[in-house]
Amino acid sequence: MATQSSTKSGGWRKDEGAIAWLFTSPALILLLLFVVLPFVMAFIYAFTDQRLVPGPNPTKFVALRNFTRLLADKRFLRALLNNFTFVGVVVPIQTTLALLLAVLINQKLKFVNIFRTIYFSPVAITMVVVSVVWAFLYESSPNGTINRFMNIITFGLLGPQDWLGNPKLAFPAIMLLSIWQGVGFQMVIFLAGLQEIPFSLYEAAQIDGANRIQQFFNVTLPQLRNTTIFVVLSTTILAFQLYSQVEVLTRGGPQNTTQTMIFYTKVMGFEQGKIGYASAITVIFFVIVLGISLIQRTVLSEERSVD
User: How far is CA 176 from the centre of its chain?
Assistant: First the structure.
């Protein structure tokens, strides 16, 4: 009897394994076709002079020539600098605002669900749609929405600005849009973390005479340590993928001040036809994102071991 039951359980496990592979196979096939295979091809092309439209000469292996040219390419270096600048500005501001909003809507207030919906709604809208809407808001004429608003709050001291045409204002304008659109996503993550904090910790702090601010710094922030690390690093990875805003609002201008790595990859690969050169950019981009992911894994592992 024991032998028969073990045989049946083994058969069930085999059947369950087969069913599991059957259900996951479509996702695995799509992942292989649209993620793994393209990256492998990009890695190979990065060491060649592959063109989008094949010419009379066959594709040649050029070793590290594409990478050495990138080091001297001012447009690429500007795009790389823009990516790191965007991350350095957007990530801390967006994270701080998300934490403050999460603390705010975590209170027992009337209509709190409405506020949660309002703050999260921009995340549910695609970035292309958001960028188109903000393009109208950034209209450079005196009747532009943001120009009129700035004129009102400054009592006419600040005249109309060409937000997307001024090299000094275009990239900050994209940063502002990105912070507004993405802050709701981090807010939800922080909100989930706040709801996991035991209320007994706040009661103990109140007994010790701690006020709201002291409770925030001595209870809330330490308890949100792992959540904050996750939010910062995941937001950093998303920030490096800046593309849609640039494509819709400025197309890398004015004077390449809003150029990013992904946008420059598109320009070199599909507008200039230099697939090999564009593939080298994607490999560098992958290395940067991989490095950040490894940092995230290392830091979170250390935090868990400390806890």
Answer: 14
Q: DSSP string of 280-305? A: HHHHHHHHHHHHHHHHHHHHHHHHHH
Cβ contacts of 93-96, under 8 Å, gap ≥ 24: 93/179, 94/178, 94/179, 94/182, 94/183, 94/186, 94/235, 95/186, 95/228, 95/231, 95/232, 95/235
Angle between helices 225-240 and 275-306 (to 10 degrees): 180
- Secondary structure tally for the chain: helices H, strands E: 15, 0
What are the tens digits of pLDDT across the range 251-275? 888 888 999 999 999 999 988 989 9
Task: With H, G, I as helix, E, B as strand and everything else as coil, classify residue 277.
Answer: helix
Q: Is residue 249 part of a domain?
A: yes
In a domain, 115, yes or no: yes
In the three-class reduction of DSSP (H, G, I as helix; E, B as strand; rest coil), residue 81 is classed as helix
Strand partners of residue 48? 61
Could you tell me which of 250, 268, 280 has the C-alpha nearest to residue 44?
A: 280
Q: pLDDT tier at 295 (50, 70, 90 boundaries)?
A: confident
Q: Is residue 60 part of a domain?
A: no
- Short-list 93, 140, 102, CA closest to 120: 102
Domain count for the chain:
1
The confidence band for 4, taking pLDDT boundaries of 50, 70 and 90, is low
Nearest CA among 135, 218, 205 for reference residue 177: 135
> For 61, which DSSP code?
B
Asked if residue 36 belongs to a domain, the reply is: no
Q: What is the DSSP letter of 67?
A: H
Cα angle, residue 45 at apex, residues 40 and 47 outer, rounded to 5°: 115
Residue type, position 15, single letter: D
Q: Which domain holds residue 106?
A: 68-306
